[in-house]
Design goal:
The protein is an alpha+beta fold and 247 residues long. The strands form four sheets. It has a three-stranded antiparallel β-sheet, sandwiched between helices. Strands 4-5-6 form a three-stranded mixed β-sheet. It is elongated, with a radius of gyration of 23 Å. The two termini are 45 Å apart. Helix 5 (74-81) packs across helix 6, helix 6 packs antiparallel against helix 7 (144-154) and helix 6 packs across helix 8 (158-167). The protein has helices at residues 3-8, 16-21, 26-34, 55-66, 74-81, 129-139, 144-154, 158-167, 174-184, 191-202; strands spanning 13-15, 38-42, 45-48, 71-72, 92-95, 108-111, 118-121, 124-127, 209-215, 221-228, 233-235. It is built from ten helices and eleven strands.
Length: 247
């Protein structure tokens, strides 16, 4: 691949090593920098001025700077994987423990070993979906519960989250992730359902079950959010995260 093709498929971002692989010499790279055609965005990482410095370009810059040992983490990984977060900020990269590399401006570095839970997505190393969901839910603070609800409905299951949590106990944010998992483990599918169950328990109302399976008249099976089976009462509770649009 020549350099122009590479830039066109990488949001205008290229590392020195990638440029050399595309056939440029050190002198050709220096000429592009001297003439202002390229600007340095991180050590050994450049942006062609024909391209806007978009969020995708910023993420690629962080990944190019970190190299093969780096892994996009938390909200940044969630954004790159398309898990429904608004933006990848703060752009966060995991490097192996003991790394002495100093993060350039705009990039946050966390020293963590994530080799057993990382995957390549759109040419960049990111943490796998279960670990990404856990870390992003913690990083999102008050919005983390809703993010986790949506992820459980669309991208991952509880068993995968529990397995990822057990492999990374002790990391920063591990306790918060554990609390989120404990709340999700009551088998209610959304924050709205969990609130309803809390109200039922507080009022000492008994005789209900969650995710109660029934057979419909056409033979299909369905799950009822909260069922009072003895009196044949079904309650459906859908929070905003259950719906994909306002309608």
């Amino acid at each position: 691949m020549d350099i122009e093709q590479f830039l066109a498929t990488h949001d205008g971002v290229v590392s020195r090593e990638q440029a050399l692989t595309c056939g440029l010499t050190d002198d050709a790279i220096a000429w592009r920098l001297t003439t202002g055609r390229w600007v340095r965005r991180a050590p050994r990482t450049f942006l062609d001025i024909a391209w806007a410095y978009t969020l995708a370009a910023r993420v690629r810059t962080a990944a190019a700077w970190a190299g093969e040992q780096g892994t996009l983490l938390a909200v940044t990984a969630a954004w790159w994987l398309g898990l429904g977060v608004a933006d990848p900020l703060p752009i966060t990269v995991a490097l192996p423990p003991g790394s002495a590399r100093r993060a350039p401006r705009g990039i946050r570095v966390v020293q963590r070993e994530v080799r057993i839970d990382r995957t390549r997505h759109r040419e960049l190393w990111v943490t796998t979906t279960p670990l990404t969901v856990l870390d992003a839910a913690v990083a999102l603070g008050p919005g983390g519960t809703r993010f986790l609800d949506r992820a459980l409905q669309q991208h991952v299951d509880l068993d995968a989250l529990r397995a990822a949590q057990s492999r990374h106990l002790g990391r920063r944010g591990s306790r918060a992730a554990g609390r989120l998992l404990a709340r999700a483990s009551d088998r209610a599918a959304s924050e709205a359902e969990r609130r309803m169950l809390a109200l039922l328990r507080a009022a000492s109302i008994a005789g209900w079950s969650v995710n109660h399976e029934v057979r419909l008249p056409d033979g299909r099976r369905a799950l009822i959010d909260v069922a009072f089976a003895d009196v044949r009462l079904a309650v459906e509770v859908d929070g905003w995260a259950h719906h994909e649009d306002v309608d």
